[in-house]
Design brief:
single chain, alpha+beta, Ribosomal Protein S5, domain 2, Alpha-Beta Plaits, 2 domains, eight-stranded mixed sheet, four-stranded antiparallel sheet, 12 helices, globular, binds alpha-D-galactopyranose
Length: 396
C-alpha cells in the first residue's frame, strides 16, 4: 500500500487503492463510499468539556469507507492502514478486549442500534489519511464516517449534530474514552473553506472564514507521551473541582473577574488550570475575529499566550512540543503557532503566510530535526466538508 501521505495528495490513486483493497479482502465491488474529516483546533485547548468555545478546523485529511451490503446481519471490516480486520454480528455486539480500533467500529454500530436505527450487515474497507494517534482526531473521523455509512446503507439520515453526539457516546461509553464533543462535532459539521467557532454549552457553531493569504500548517512532533490518557482524566477532574468550588456548572460560567476574586478558595494547581481555561475560551472567540479581519499581530499574540498557558498553567506540553514551538516561530512566514489536540506531544498547528508555506515547512523540518533528533511531518491543510456519502467518480 502507498503511504498515507501519497494518498493524501492523490485522491484518484486512493480511490483505486481502496477499491483494490476491497476487492482483495471481500471480492467484488463496493457500492457506496463515505468519508469524514479529522480536525485541528486553532484555539481552545481543553475548553470543550468545560463547555467553553473552540475554534476548530475540519481538515482535508480524512477517513474513507468503501462498503457493500450483506444480507446476513454480519459486519466485516478491513483497515488498510493497520492491515487488520474484524467481524461481528449486529445482533450481539460485544467489545473486543485490547483492540481500540475494533471497538470504534463496534461501538458506533452498537450505539446506533441502541437508538433503534435500522442497521444492515455490510463489508467495509477503510482507509485514513489522518495520521493515527497524532492529535488530529483519527478516531472521530472513523466514527463519523462509519455512522454516515450505516445511515446510507440503512436508508435513513440524522442531523449532523445528532450524529456527532451519538459518535461521542460510542467513544465515551463503548470505547471508554471520556472525550468532549470537539472531535465528533468538527468531523460532522465541517463546511468547505470555513473554520467553526463551536460553543460547547449550547452546541451551536458559527462559520469563520480565514482571511485570504493565511494558511494552516500542521506540524507533527512525532512524539506522544504514554500517560496522556490519565493526564487528560486528571485535568478534567481538576476543572470539575474548580467549577464545584466556585459554585458553577462548568468553568464556562466563570468570568476572569470572578476567578480573580475567588482564586484564594481554590487549591493552587486547580486555580492555574482554571486560569488557563477561562482565558483560552475567550481567546477562541478573539482568534475567530482576528483571523477574519487578517490582524496578524493579534493572531500571533493569542497563539503565543495559548502556548504559554498550556505550558505553564495547564501543563500539557512536552519537551518535543517546546522544540517544535521554537522551530515554528523561527520559520519564514510564521504568523502564530501553538499546541493542538490534547497536547502531550502529537501535532501542533501554525498559521502561516500563504506565500511562504513551502519555505516554512522546510525550515521547521530542519530546525526541529536538529533540536529534537526526530523528523517531523509538516503539511498544509484546507478546511473540509463534514461527514458525507460521496461519489467515487468525483475523485477520478
Ligand atoms: C481530545 C479530546 C477532545 C478535547 C481535546 C482537547 O482531542 O478528544 O474532546 O478535549 O482533547 O481540547
Amino acid at each position: 500500500m502507498k503511504s498515507a501521505v501519497d494518498w493524501a495528495v492523490d485522491s484518484q490513486a486512493r480511490t483505486e487503492g481502496l477499491g483494490d483493497g476491497f476487492r482483495r479482502t471481500f471480492g467484488g465491488e463496493p457500492e457506496l463510499w463515505a468519508r469524514a474529516p479529522g480536525r485541528v483546533d486553532l484555539m481552545g485547548s481543553h475548553t470543550d468539556y468545560n463547555l467553553g468555545f473552540v475554534l476548530t478546523l475540519p481538515i482535508s485529511r480524512d477517513t474513507w469507507i468503501a462498503a457493500r451490503r450483506r444480507d446476513d446481519r454480519t459486519v466485516r471490516v478491513h483497515s488498510m492502514n493497520l492491515d487488520a480486520g474484524d467481524e461481528f454480528r449486529l445482533d450481539a455486539i460485544e467489545p473486543v478486549a485490547g483492540s481500540r480500533w475494533c471497538n470504534y467500529v463496534r461501538g458506533v454500530a452498537a450505539t446506533l442500534a441502541g437508538e433503534r436505527l435500522a442497521l444492515t450487515g455490510c463489508d467495509l474497507a477503510i482507509h485514513s489519511t489522518v495520521p493515527l494517534e497524532s492529535g488530529l482526531s483519527s478516531s472521530a473521523a472513523l466514527e463519523c464516517a462509519l455512522a454516515t455509512m450505516f445511515a446510507a446503507l440503512g436508508g435513513w439520515s440524522l442531523r449532523p449534530e445528532r450524529m456527532a453526539l451519538l459518535c461521542q457516546k460510542a467513544e465515551n461509553e463503548f470505547v471508554g474514552v471520556n472525550c468532549g464533543i470537539l472531535d465528533q462535532y468538527s468531523s460532522c459539521l465541517g463546511r468547505e473553506a470555513c473554520a467553526l467557532l463551536l460553543d460547547c454549552r449550547d452546541l451551536s457553531t458559527r462559520s469563520v472564514r480565514l482571511a485570504d493569504g493565511i494558511r494552516v500548517v500542521v506540524c507533527n512532533t512525532m512524539s506522544r507521551r504514554r500517560l496522556s490518557g490519565s493526564e487528560y482524566a486528571q485535568r478534567r477532574a481538576e476543572c470539575e473541582l474548580g467549577a464545584a468550588r466556585l459554585g458553577v456548572r462548568a468553568l464556562r460560567d466563570v468570568t476572569p473577574q470572578m476567578l480573580a476574586a475567588r482564586r484564594p478558595e481554590l487549591p493552587e494547581q486547580v486555580a492555574r488550570r482554571c486560569d488557563f481555561i477561562v482565558a483560552e475560551s475567550a481567546r477562541a472567540e478573539s482568534l475567530a475575529t482576528a483571523l477574519t479581519v487578517n490582524d496578524r499581530q493579534i493572531v500571533g499574540r493569542l497563539c503565543a499566550e495559548s502556548f504559554a498557558g498550556a505550558r505553564d498553567l495547564y501543563e500539557i506540553c512536552s519537551p518535543a512540543m517546546v522544540a517544535m514551538m521554537e522551530a515554528m516561530l523561527a520559520a519564514p512566514g510564521a504568523i502564530g503557532a501553538r499546541q493542538a489536540g490534547a497536547g502531550f506531544g502529537g501535532s501542533m498547528v501554525a498559521l502561516v503566510d500563504a506565500a511562504s508555506t513551502d519555505a516554512f515547512c522546510a525550515a521547521v523540518g530542519k530546525a526541529y530535526g536538529k533540536a529534537a533528533g526526530m523528523v517531523p511531518e509538516t503539511y498544509p491543510v484546507e478546511a473540509a466538508q463534514g461527514a458525507e456519502v460521496f461519489d467515487k467518480y468525483r475523485c477520478s
